TrEMBL record:
<dbReference type="Pfam" id="PF09828">
    <property type="entry name" value="ChrB_C"/>
</dbReference>
<protein>
    <submittedName>
        <fullName>Chromate resistance protein</fullName>
    </submittedName>
</protein>
<feature type="domain" description="ChrB C-terminal">
    <location>
        <begin position="3"/>
        <end position="135"/>
    </location>
</feature>
<dbReference type="InterPro" id="IPR018634">
    <property type="entry name" value="ChrB_C"/>
</dbReference>
């Protein structure tokens, strides 16, 4: 299935494709267009619009689109649920929700600055979310123990 959203993705518009590809639709394709073209292009391309006002897959109250996808598709993986707090904190500037949220915002803003091609940016962003997921699932208890000997 095709999914469509606003161009120049940051937090939620990178996190959602990662979540969709990993847990909902491994064959998903993503399209980025100017904000004012999302709805019209979604109809033309038969694509699901996301992270834009007035569509099903979007923010609900204080919850972001990443949260909606988790709810809609009944995802229960504890690492994904932990990522949801981080994504929500970064996407809504609520850095108090997870200590990693400010860092995720900084990385996302930097990726957006460094890449002009949205699909290239998405490819690198997917690696970031793979790393966050691995941290949450497997190594979050690991501590940095370097000592200056």
């Amino acid at each position: 299935m095709k999914w469509i959203t606003r161009e120049r993705p940051k937090i939620d518009r990178i996190a959602c494709p990662w979540l969709i590809k990993k847990f909902v639709d491994p064959e998903a394709e993503f399209v980025f267009v100017p904000k004012e073209q999302v709805i019209a292009q979604s109809k033309t391309l038969h694509a699901i619009p996301y992270d834009i006002t007035g569509v099903e897959y979007t923010h609900e109250g204080e919850r972001c689109t990443f949260d909606y996808i988790i709810k809609k598709h009944g995802l229960t993986d504890p690492a994904v649920l932990q990522l949801a707090d981080i994504v929500r904190g970064a996407d809504t500037a609520r850095f108090d929700l997870a200590q990693q949220a400010a860092g995720l915002w900084a990385i996302s803003a930097g990726l957006s600055y460094n890449f002009r091609d949205d699909h290239e940016q998405l490819a690198f962003g997917m690696i970031v979310y793979d790393a966050l997921y691995s941290w949450a699932k497997y190594v979050q208890e690991e501590k940095h123990t370097w000592k200056n000997d």
